[in-house]
Amino acid sequence: MASPPTSEYPRRIGGAVPRFSWGTAIAILAVLGLTSWSVWGTEFDLVELFSSTRPMERFLSGMFPPDFSPTTLWQTGTGLLQTFQMSFLGALIGAVAALPLAVLATQEPPAVAASRAERLLRAVPYHVARFVINVFRSVPDILWALVFVVAVGLGPFPGTLALAVHSAGILGKLYSETLETVPGRPVEALRATGAGTLQAFLFGRLPQAMSDFTSLTLYQWECNIRSATVLGLVGAGGIGQQIIVSMNLFDYSKVATLVAATIIAVLIVDSFSAFVRRRLAY
Amino acid sequence: MGLALKDVTVRFGETPALADVTIEMERGARLAVIGASGAGKSTLFRTLIRSVALDAGKVLVGGRDLYALSKKELKGVQRGVGTIYQAYNLVPQLPAGVNAALGEVGGMGSLRTLRTFLAGPDGPLAKRVEAALERIGLSGMAHQRTADLSGGQQQRVAVARLLVQRPELVLADEPFAAVDPVTTERVMEALLDLNGEGATLLINLHDVNVARRFPRVVALKEGRIVFDGPPERLTDEELSRIYDGDPYGTGASPPQEPPEDVLHCRQDPARIVEGRDGISAH
Question: For strand B224-229 and strand B217-221, is the pairing parallel, antiparallel, or unpaired?
């Protein structure tokens, strides 16, 4: 027998937007409050941006036509090559330094029935490596560049060092997370047949993480080529250094050429890196 | 290598996964462990490779208290223990030959480990790998990427790893649960051969018909031993008692017609007709 029709509908299920609750309301108010506070603190003013357009007009009109003189093109080419070299070497040295740091900073599942001394022996290098990675990673590359400019003088060398140290921090963290998340069963199977820590790492974890490592390193290289451009602004070599010199000389048409070349180079490296990473995703 | 579990209890929270389990096996014996899902078979397996903490009892492998051994002593014992799993637990990115060669990894020194990592198995080891793959029907597949092999072929590679290792104790955790009947038969043959050569064999099984091929069967239910004896004593009533409460029932899987090649691959096809996976009809 069919159930009698009822006028009462079941309780509304609701849409994708969270239902009203005091918690949500307070969260929205907190976000609005933070926004106002930040606008006030940063003197954020769109009216100011669009009302004082004269300096911007002067800058933009000065950029056209771009300077395609042989000297500028030569300087652009050498600047780009130097930026490329800095980014590549920075990523490579960073990756080489990151690997041992990541290995030490990888948290293995605790061994069953291991003695306290054995646990301590594993915990000390783990925490030291984590600390080093965090220091390398949390200091921005531009600050590392300032440090190395003070230490070794102006030029691409301090820039490369800055990129290498920062890359080692970023890649160290990403590598160790990759090593921790590879499927553990093959590693466990190796350990069960008497493989030591190094053997389980070399034949169990590393092969499973290798394609991710390559992909992450290529991505870091992409980031480095963008960072290498900025590092020049503090005298750490590359095309950025030429951009800042030209800006200071009000040579905006040369700036246009340098910036356009930078954009093209970054796009080419990004596309190449993305292509290789897609191939590795298999 | 004989083994003994003495009053072993393992708890996960409040629930006992194993409760007062006592099993003894002489060197060269073979034993099948059956029971419904969650009965404690895998936990029993894990106690024998020291990958789960004991709440009470002792586990002796080769006469040595497994849970009282130092890291170095444990490695020594584990070198003589071969394992095979339902999910193969191979390193999918490595060639099949390297996975098979990893049976030897526990016995390698640092230099040989590095050499194998960089250049692959050396001459004598490569020869043993080829022989093992040939014995299991994977001749000429040493260079194939393991991930590109079928599930059945991967399980055979896992058996080849055992053959390379030449263990004194073989522990198998549901090795037939995810493979076809032909592979089941091939793997079973290899395991029985190893047993015939003197290795002790303990195997966890879902399939009662396969278990009947063992001279001794132990049944677990809710972590306790509810049957220990020859397969002839496994009556319908016994099986009902063992699998009581299992959602799949006792022998619930309908008889399946095996593929043609299975029926012709052995003298006694009846041994593999029933129950590819799960508890088969009895």
Answer: antiparallel
What is the pTM (predicted TM-score) of this model? 0.78
Whether pLDDT at B278 is above 60: no
Categorize the per-residue pLDDT at B276 as very low, low, confident or very high, splitting at 50, 70 and 90: very low
What span, in angstroms and rounded, lies between the C-alpha atoms of A56 and A58?
Answer: 5
Report CB contact under 8 Å: A203, B94: yes
Query: Each residue of A139-161: b (16+ CB within 10 Å) or e?
Result: eebbebbbebbeeeeebbbbbbb
Contact A208, A186 (CB under 8 A): yes
Does the structure show a pLDDT above 80 at B20?
Answer: yes
Question: Out of B50, B94, B113, whose CB is closest to A198?
Answer: B113
Q: Are B237 and B251 in contact (CB under 8 A)?
A: no
- Chain A residues in contact with B51 by the CB 8 A cut-off are 112, 188, 192
Region label for B228, one of left (φ > 0), alpha (ψ between -120 and 50) or beta (otherwise): beta
Instruction: Tell me how close the Cα of B171 comes to any Cα of chain A, in angstroms.
Output: 10
* Residues in a beta bridge with B18: B10
Chain A residues closer than 8 Å to B105 by CB: 190, 193-195, 199, 203
B143 Cα to chain A: minimum distance (Å): 15
All residue ranges of chain A with pLDDT < 70 are 1-7, 113, 281-282
Q: State whether residue B11 is helix, strand or coil.
A: strand
B77 interaction partners in chain A (CB closer than 8 Å): 194
Instruction: Pick B85's closest partner by Cβ from A189, A207, A211.
Output: A189
User: Is residue B81 within 8 Å of B64, Cβ to Cβ?
Assistant: no
Which chain A residue's Cα is nearest to B85?
Answer: A189
If you search the block for the tokens 């092969």, which residue do you land on? A207
Asked whether this complex has an ipTM greater than 0.85, the answer is no
Mean pLDDT score of chain B, rounded to an integer? Answer: 84
Inter-chain touch A194–B102, beta carbons under 8 Å:
no
